[in-house]
Design brief:
Belongs to the major facilitator superfamily. Bcr/CmlA family. There is one protein chain. The protein is an all-alpha fold and about 400 residues long. The protein has a single domain, classed as Growth Hormone, Chain: A (Up-down Bundle). The chain is about 80% helix and about 0% strand. The chain is globular, with a radius of gyration of 20 Å.
Length: about 400
């Protein structure tokens, strides 16, 4: 039997650890948003259709979902650090493969490998937070991580555009490899082993444990709220290039500023959430944030259907929706993980996989329902937000049931 042996902590929860964990959980947004401006260049270089290039994004989502399902049980059994080292090496190798891909098919396969590696860091971060904290303290730490993670969607499209103009699309994936190597060195130097010693017997049936966690209402309610909010986010990400650039004639070099403004709103609300948690419970803050997201989604549908407000009506509605995720994500994550300290890795894996499976579905649905208007994107955002509101009802019923 192999168990994790915690080593002496080499860092407290100082800026270094927060920056590292924020970077690790931001690998997904960074790896997605940075190459979005390069889609036309990739298609031209690899003689691929727009659909073939878009599939490289879908395979990345799939890799994140599958990778988290496997890396969660592994991190519970073998500790947080060693699986992370392996995952970061895999991310670097996948990035190098993407940079040298001769075809869209090879690029898609390497994106899958890249996502498998990056998923380990995302699982590890949530598990480390739960190892160290619970309840409101965990939500506050997640808010601090969102501040760092939120820089990825602000900076990534702009950075990707600059790298594309300076060195071509392959250099974008080369930069991913460099970032992965830096993260590997930082993890080895900074990240302590936080997994508590445990019996391997408790993880002899990891997929049975996953199912047990998934069907627990105290997990499923907030986990679905977080995942559905993320699905709305990816409906926006998938549809916004067409809505802004094609439909409303926003120049590609200016699109990144709209994208960045929304991400800045998310970061600002994540820090407001830290202040709110000193005065309200995570459940109360989460409920209000999801209500705001649902109202923003309905406003977006109204603007998209009537044309009232035009570009700025769409931009404002999206700003409010995306900003609300700064309170939804940390609180829902903390609540979902709250009762699963002994299986934090598995719970983190289920939560992450659920988020990216729904995100992939939302992105695909927006693409499939394309009708030349902003309505598919708007409906994707609104439906996801309303379903998230319904998911909180599931959690409330669990709290008030006689069994609880």
């Amino acid at each position: 039997m192999t168990t994790a042996t915690p080593r002496p902590a080499r860092s407290t929860e100082g800026p270094g650890l927060i920056l590292l964990l924020g970077a690790l959980i931001g690998f997904g947004p960074l790896s997605i948003d940075m190459y979005l401006p390069a889609f036309p260049a990739i298609g031209e270089s690899l003689h691929a259709t727009a659909g073939e290039v878009e599939r490289t994004l879908a395979t990345f989502f799939a890799g994140l979902a599958v990778g988290q399902l496997f890396s969660g049980p592994v991190s519970d059994r073998f500790g947080r650090t060693k699986p992370l080292y392996v995952g970061l090496v895999l991310y670097v190798l996948g990035s190098i493969g993407c940079a040298s891909a001769p075809s869209a098919e090879v690029l898609a396969a390497c994106r899958f490998v890249q996502a498998l590696g990056g998923s380990v860091g995302m699982v590890t971060t949530r598990a480390v937070v739960r190892d160290l904290h619970s309840g409101a303290a965990a939500a506050r730490m997640m808010s601090r991580l969102v501040l760092v993670m939120g820089l990825a969607p602000i900076l990534a499209p702009l950075l990707g555009g600059w790298v594309l103009r300076a060195a071509g699309w392959r250099a974008i994936f080369g930069s991913h490899a460099v970032i992965g190597l830096i993260a590997l060195g930082a993890a080895f130097a900074i990240l302590p082993e936080t997994a508590p010693p445990k019996s391997g017997a408790s993880h002899s049936k990891p997929f049975q444990a996953m199912w047990s966690i998934t069907k627990a209402p105290d997990f499923l309610g907030p986990a679905l709220a977080a995942a559905l909010a993320q699905a709305g986010m990816f409906a926006y990400i998938g549809g916004s290039p067409f809505v802004f650039i094609t439909l409303h004639d926003v120049k590609p070099e200016h699109f990144g500023w709209f994208f960045g403004a929304n991400a800045a709103g998310l970061v600002a609300v994540s820090q407001l959430n830290h202040w709110l948690l000193a005065r309200s419970s995570p459940e109360q803050v989460l409920k209000q944030a999801v209500r705001i997201a649902a109202l923003a989604g309905l406003a977006l549908v109204t603007v998209a259907s009537t044309g009232f407000g035009g570009l700025w009506g769409i931009a404002l509605s999206l700003f409010v929706f995306v900003s609300s995720l700064g309170a939804i994500t940390p609180n829902a994550t903390a609540l979902a993980m709250e009762q699963h300290a002994k299986q934090a890795g598995i719970a983190s894996a289920v939560l992450g996989a659920l988020q990216f499976m729904l995100a992939a579905g939302a992105s695909a649905a927006v693409s499939a329902s394309h009708d030349g208007t902003a309505r598919p994107m708007a409906l994707g955002v609104a439906i996801a937000a309303l379903l998230a509101l319904g998911a909180l009802g599931l959690a409330r019923r669990a709290d008030t049931s006689p069994a609880s």
